[in-house]
Amino acid sequence: MSTAGKVIKCKAAIVFEPKKPFSIVEIEVAPPKAHEARIKILATGICRTDDHILSGSIKTTYPVIPGHEAVAVVESIGEGVTCVKPGDKVIPLFLPQCGKCRTCKNPEGNLCEKNDLYEFKGLMYDGTTRFSYKGKPVHNFASTSTFTEYTVVHEDSLAKIDPAAPPEKACLIGCGFSTGYGAAIRSGKVTPDSSCAVFGLGGVGLSVVMGCKAAGASRIIGIDINKDKFPMAKELGATECISPLDFKKPINEVVLEMTEGEGVDYSFEVIGRTDTMVAALASCNMNYGVSVIVGAAPSASEVTLSPTLIFTGRTWKGSVFGGLKSKDAVPKLVLELMSKKFILDPLITHVLPFDKINEGFELLHKGESIRTVLKM
Ligand code: PAD
Ligand code: ZN
Ligand code: ZN
C-alpha cells in the first residue's frame, strides 16, 4: 500500500538536549511539500560533526535529529520535483546546490546560499519541520537528518546516484570521503611531488590523505594523538606519522624540522580545534604554503594568531564539503567508487544496526572506530 501523501510513523534517534545520548523513539514524518522529497534511509555513517551536536559544541536547536551522511531511496515527492522520482537511489546533501544563487553560479564557490550550516535553524525553507514527536515539532539538522528511517529534504539537497551503488559504502560520499578528498584536490589543489601534513586521522583526515596521494604528493605527514590511527594512515598513503604527545616542542616546530625549516607545501586541519588550526598554518611554508581548515570548531570559539604567519605569504582557507559543488560532484564520485578509482572499505571499521547508534558514538569517543555505518 502506498504511503505517499500520508504521515509515516517510524523510528528515529533524537537528541533532546546536549550531553545526553540519543533516544530512539517513534516519530511522525509528514509528507513532502512542494520541491521536497521524502526518502527512506538505507545506511548512514557517523561523522564527528554529529557528535558536535550531541556534545553541544556546535550550537543548534533541540530537539533535533542529527545525521548527514547517507544513502536513501525516494519514497514520495512533492509538487514540482523534477530531479528524482519515487524509487530513485539518492544521497542527501548537507550542503545544498540550488543552482540559482550567486555562489552556485560562480564556478569557484560551493557554499550555496540555501545552506543551513551557520545558524543551524533546523527547518525547511518554509520555516517549519516535517518531523514531530508526541505532537511537538522536532528540528532537522544540516538540511538532511539521516538518523531516522524516513526524512524529508528539499530537492536542492538531493543527488540522484547509480541504482547499483552499495549503500553502506556510498554513504561516505555524503560527507566524510568527499569532504576530505575534495579538501586536498579541490580546495588545497595539492600538486604532484608536493609535501603535505594532515592534522587528524579520522574518517575525514584519512580521506584527505587519500586525496593528497591521488594528487601525487610525494610526502604526506599524518599527525594524530591516537597512534592506533597510524597503520591505516600509512596504508592509505601517509609516508610518516607523528604524535604531538611524543614531543615537548610544539608540533609545528617538529614539522618544520622534518622539512629542513621549509614547512610543508600544504597542511590540513581535520580535527576541529583552534590550537591545531594555528599549528597547521604555522607548519606550512611561510611564503607559498597553503593551509586548509576542514575541522569544525566549536561555535563559540575564536582564534588568536600572529599576523606574521599570514603576512609572509601563507594562504589560509576553509573548506566545506571539500569545496565541491555537491549535486554535481556526488553522482560522479559514486561512479568513481563503483569503478574502483578509490576504495572506501578501509574507512569503514564498524557496521551496526541503527538501534545501536549510541554504541557507534561510544566507539567514536573511545577512538576505536574510523567510520561506523548504521544499517536501517
Ligand atoms: P574524528 O573524530 O573521526 O577524527 C579526528 C581525529 O583527530 C581523531 O583521530 C583524533 O584522535 C584526532 N585528534 C583529536 N585531538 C587531536 C589533537 N589535539 N592533535 C592531533 N590529533 C587530534 O572526526 P572526523 O574525521 O569525522 O571529522 C574531523 C573534523 O572535520 C570534525 O571537526 C568534523 O566536524 C569536521 C568535518 N568538517 C566537514 C566540512 O565540510 N568541513 C565535514 C565533515 C566533518
Ligand atoms: Zn560529516
Ligand atoms: Zn545555491
Automatic annotation (TrEMBL):
<dbReference type="Pfam" id="PF08240">
    <property type="entry name" value="ADH_N"/>
</dbReference>
<dbReference type="InterPro" id="IPR011032">
    <property type="entry name" value="GroES-like_sf"/>
</dbReference>
<protein>
    <recommendedName>
        <fullName>alcohol dehydrogenase</fullName>
        <ecNumber>1.1.1.1</ecNumber>
    </recommendedName>
</protein>
<dbReference type="Pfam" id="PF00107">
    <property type="entry name" value="ADH_zinc_N"/>
</dbReference>
<dbReference type="InterPro" id="IPR013154">
    <property type="entry name" value="ADH-like_N"/>
</dbReference>
<dbReference type="GO" id="GO:0005829">
    <property type="term" value="C:cytosol"/>
</dbReference>
<dbReference type="GO" id="GO:0042572">
    <property type="term" value="P:retinol metabolic process"/>
</dbReference>
<keyword id="KW-0963">Cytoplasm</keyword>
<dbReference type="GO" id="GO:0008270">
    <property type="term" value="F:zinc ion binding"/>
</dbReference>
<feature type="domain" description="Alcohol dehydrogenase-like C-terminal">
    <location>
        <begin position="203"/>
        <end position="339"/>
    </location>
</feature>
<keyword id="KW-0520">NAD</keyword>
<keyword id="KW-0560">Oxidoreductase</keyword>
<feature type="domain" description="Alcohol dehydrogenase-like N-terminal">
    <location>
        <begin position="34"/>
        <end position="162"/>
    </location>
</feature>
<dbReference type="GO" id="GO:0042573">
    <property type="term" value="P:retinoic acid metabolic process"/>
</dbReference>
<keyword id="KW-0862">Zinc</keyword>
<dbReference type="InterPro" id="IPR013149">
    <property type="entry name" value="ADH-like_C"/>
</dbReference>
<keyword id="KW-0007">Acetylation</keyword>
<keyword id="KW-0479">Metal-binding</keyword>
<dbReference type="GO" id="GO:0004745">
    <property type="term" value="F:all-trans-retinol dehydrogenase (NAD+) activity"/>
</dbReference>
<dbReference type="InterPro" id="IPR036291">
    <property type="entry name" value="NAD(P)-bd_dom_sf"/>
</dbReference>
